[in-house]
Every structure is written in structure tokens, then in C-alpha cells.
Write a structure and sequence with these properties.
The protein is mostly beta strands. It is about 5% helix and about 50% strand. A ten-stranded antiparallel barrel has the order 1-4-5-8-9-10-11-13-14-16. Strand 11 and strand 12 form a beta hairpin. Keywords: Signal. InterPro entries: BBP7. It holds the Pfam family BBP7.
């Protein structure tokens, strides 16, 4: 074994480095022999051929291997050929601005366009439920096809009216023939029966209503409406005559010459006079409105209109009393005939302003309408009182312009005015029978305050015919509230 002197360390380090270099060279040669030479086409993108048919396959050849032992390895197979079909395409120029839909001049404002569609979300007057759509189109949602909206609309109705009757004072009484002459026919006596007096209840009378309106715009926001109603004449006729029973027939009154004590004018008196009495009453009423309506609310198939305008009405009533009495032979008035006529006419004329709400709702072919309104104004009342008396004795007639309750103290024309309130309620149910036409049935009620009737201007305090009256009877204006109600059956041209 050789001994290396410690005095030579540099020679030892150089020898170690030489051995390490030899080992590195040997391993590097082995790794180089196992490395394949890089292909010339590796890492280069070859795009597919674009054509309508099938492209021929492209073979990819591998590069030769640097070492001889790689020559025996198989050649790498190419990938399956790609076939891409060409499709149509659109060239978009990025510099070109996109097209913008031109808006009409009224876009965003309330109203409808020419096609009948709402041109803004606000809508304004669009979507009229009465037309089933917007503006002047599709006016018939019930029958499934549209028709142009008309500017005119209206209705005609037949009405069965009931009205407030007159509260008549006791005008005709009777007493048994055994009653003392001094108290026969007088009020307050146990033997007296009132034949005419008290509340006269009105019977049903025929009448009618009509309305005509015009829309002021195509979107049915505003309209002018004219309404008219009329109640047929109502008459009552009470007739009483001597039936041969021997009973008294009289006209009761309060005798002003006897401190207003109860008294009676005997028309039929056993063995003295015979005769008859007739009481007739007549009543008529009519009126109308001129209104301006404005759409207030719409939605859910309905609409509510507010309206205001002018209202008028007339209520005229009359009462006529006719007496015919003939003195019997053997009596104190033998051969004398007395014919008396009293006439009382009460005229009421209302003029005022009115406002209210008119509601309409449609569900398919069915619809309902409700109107509520109230009027304020002046009720002008007139009282016309006339009298006439004909006395016949021995073929000679004596005429007088006085009657029994119509005397010099109250004969003539008298008028007065008073503030009046006139509410009204109307409800109708309708059914569409053909495009734009509804049949309807409904109920209506209206009232007028401070109305005078003939019974309210009639004073039953007077004197007997042999006494000249100076202070009684007087002109009275006892007013009341006058109501009218009706069942209505109509035909409406829907708007």
C-alpha cells in the first residue's frame, strides 16, 4: 500500500477532480445517444382546409432519428382528417350605428296612436272599458269583433212611475139621517164619516226617460249629456151624490165667523136638498239635465265619471171641487139651485246646479250602471186660486167669481221662491243583445224639497155663503218633500 505524503494536498485534490470529470463524460454520452432529433415541423399550427367536400388526409412524417437504434421503431400515425363545412355569414361593420325605431311625435304622452293602441305606459285616456280596448277601436268585447266607436250615444226607457200623493184636508163628510141638523157633517162628531181627506196615495202611471250624449274626444274622456224624464198625468176623481138613503152629505169647514168652530155646508139634507159633489186632482212632473262629464277613474273593466251641469224640473198639480145642490119642494130652498166651483193650482219650477258621479262596469255581455247626484237651486212656487158660483132661482142666474174655499181674500195668483235640494239615485242592469245595443232594467229615485201641492195652498177656514169673508181663507204655502220613483225598462246604444 502506497503512502501519500501529507505535504502534497494539492496533488490529491487535482486527482479527485480528474476522476469526477471522467465519470461525467461517460454518463453524458449515454444520454445523448437516447435523445431523438427534434422534428422540423413540431410546434407549427397547420389550419384545416375549408372546402365544401371531404379534404384529403395529410400525412405527417417524422424526422430521422439521430441514433441508429431508433430507426427500427414504427412511424407515428397522423391524426384523423378534419372536415369543416362552410356556412353563410353576415358581415357586421363595427363602424355602422345600429338602427333605431322612429317614435311618433306623441310618444310618451297620454292618448292612443292611429292603430288604437296605447302609446305610453301612462295611457291617460287609453283603455276605455266601454270600448273593450284603446280609443276608437274594438268597441264590442262581448261579441268578439270590433266596430268603430261612435261619437253619439243614448238610451230610451219606458218607466213605471209612483209619486207622492196629496195630503188632502177633509173635504167631504156624511152623517146618518137621524143626526141633528146643527152637527150633521161636522168634524169631531161621533156620527161624522170622512169620505174624502187624508193622504191620497199615488197610483202607478206610465212615463219615460231619454238621454243623448256626444263624446268630445276620440278617447272618451269628456262628453256632453242631455237627460229628460217625464211622468204621465195622474188623476183622481171622487164623486158622491144623493143615493136616496136619507143620509147627510156635506162639506166640512172651520167657520171664521164663529171663532173657527167646526161647521158644515149641507149639500144633501133629508127633505130639504139633493145634490152631488165631485173632487178631482191632477198631477204632472217632468224635468231634465244638461251635463258635462269627465272621466275620473278607470280599471278592471269599469269607469267612473264625474259630472256637473244644469238641472230643471216642473211639478204641477191641481185640485177642483164642484158642488151642485138643488132645493126640494116643500123645503126652505125650494126651486133654488146652487152650483159652486173651487179651483186650486200649484206650480213648482226648479232651476239649479247639479253634480255627481256616473259608474259603469261590464263583465262579458252583462253590465251595470249607477248614477248618484244632487242638485241645489231655487224652487219657484206659484198658487193660482179661482172660484165660481152660479145661483139659479125662478130661471134667473146670478153669477159670482167666488167659490166656497176660494173667496175674495185668497183669489188670484201668488208666488214665492225657496231654496231646494234635489238628490237622485239610478241603478241599471244591462245585457248586450247585439253589437253596441243593451237591454236594461233598473230602479230610480229622485226627490225635491220645498214643493207646494194644492192641499198646501188651500185654507179650509172660511165663512158660510151668506157671510162676506174679509180675512179668511188665506193663501198658504205649506210645502213638503216631493218624491218620484220608477222601474225603468230601456234600450241603450252603448258608447
Amino acid at each position: 500500500m502506497a503512502t501519500i505524503p501529507t505535504s502534497q494536498p494539492r496533488k490529491f485534490v487535482a486527482a479527485a477532480l480528474a476522476w469526477a470529470a471522467c465519470i461525467a463524460i461517460v454518463f453524458s454520452a449515454t444520454a445523448t445517444a437516447q435523445t431523438r432529433q427534434r422534428e422540423t415541423t413540431r410546434g407549427t399550427y397547420a389550419p384545416p382546409v375549408l372546402e365544401s367536400g371531404t379534404a384529403p388526409a395529410t400525412k405527417l412524417q417524422s424526422s430521422p432519428v439521430a441514433n441508429s437504434h431508433r430507426a427500427s421503431e414504427p412511424t407515428r400515425q397522423p391524426a384523423a382528417p378534419e372536415v369543416v363545412r362552410q356556412v353563410d355569414y353576415e358581415v357586421i361593420e363595427l363602424s355602422q350605428e345600429p338602427s333605431v325605431l322612429d317614435m311618433g311625435p306623441d310618444y310618451g304622452s297620454p292618448g292612443c296612436d292611429s292603430g288604437g293602441y296605447c302609446d305610453s305606459m301612462g295611457g291617460g285616456c287609453c283603455g276605455s272599458p266601454t270600448c273593450g280596448g284603446c280609443g276608437p277601436t274594438v268597441c264590442n268585447p262581448c261579441f268578439g269583433y270590433g266596430m268603430p266607436c261612435q261619437r253619439l250615444f243614448g238610451s230610451l226607457e219606458y218607466s213605471m212611475y209612483w209619486r207622492r200623493g196629496q195630503t188632502l184636508p177633509p173635504l167631504v163628510t156624511s152623517s146618518p139621517g137621524t143626526t141633528a141638523v146643527g152637527v150633521a157633517g161636522e168634524l169631531g162628531q161621533a156620527t161624522t164619516t170622512i169620505l174624502v181627506g187624508g193622504l191620497t196615495r199615488g197610483e202607478m202611471t206610465s212615463g219615460g226617460r231619454a238621454q243623448l250624449g256626444i263624446w268630445m274626444d276620440d278617447f272618451q274622456c269628456r262628453s256632453i249629456l242631455l237627460r229628460f224624464w217625464g211622468v204621465g198625468d195622474e188623476t183622481f176623481d171622487y164623486s158622491f151624490a144623493d143615493d136616496g138613503s136619507g143620509d147627510y152629505l156635506a162639506v166640512p169647514f172651520n167657520n171664521a165667523g164663529l171663532n173657527n168652530e167646526a161647521d158644515a155646508f149641507l149639500i144633501v139634507e133629508p127633505n130639504e136638498t139633493t145634490g152631488s159633489i165631485n173632487i178631482q186632482t191632477r198631477s204632472e212632473a217632468y224635468g231634465g239635465d244638461a251635463l258635462l262629464r269627465q272621466k275620473w277613474r278607470t280599471g278592471l273593466g269599469g269607469r267612473v265619471d264625474a259630472f256637473w251641469g244644469y238641472q230643471t224640473a216642473r211639478i204641477n198639480e191641481s185640485l177642483t171641487m164642484s158642488v151642485d145642490s138643488l132645493g126640494l119642494d116643500g123645503g126652505t130652498r125650494a126651486g133654488q139651485r146652487l152650483q159652486i166651483t173651487d179651483s186650486f193650482q200649484a206650480k213648482n219650477e226648479f232651476h239649479g246646479a247639479t253634480f255627481g258621479f256616473d259608474s259603469f262596469y261590464r263583465e262579458g255581455c252583462w253590465s251595470w250602471t249607477m248614477l248618484t247626484k244632487i242638485g241645489f237651486g231655487s224652487m219657484h212656487r206659484e198658487a193660482a186660486i179661482r172660484g165660481n158660483t152660479v145661483r139659479t132661482s125662478g130661471g134667473i142666474e146670478a153669477l159670482s167669481d167666488e167659490g166656497f174655499f176660494a173667496r175674495n181674500s185668497n183669489i188670484g195668483d201668488t208666488s214665492s221662491s225657496k231654496f231646494s235640494v234635489a238628490p237622485e239615485f239610478d241603478l241599471k242592469l244591462g245585457y248586450a243583445v247585439c253589437p253596441g245595443v243593451d237591454l236594461s232594467i233598473g230602479y230610480s229615485f229622485q226627490l225635491f224639497t220645498n214643493v207646494v201641492q194644492p192641499s198646501g195652498i188651500m185654507d179650509t177656514t172660511t165663512t158660510d155663503l151668506s157671510t162676506t169673508s174679509t180675512s179668511h181663507p188665506i193663501v198658504k204655502f205649506d210645502d213638503t218633500s216631493y218624491w218620484i220613483q220608477a222601474l225603468n225598462f230601456g234600450l241603450a246604444w252603448n258608447y
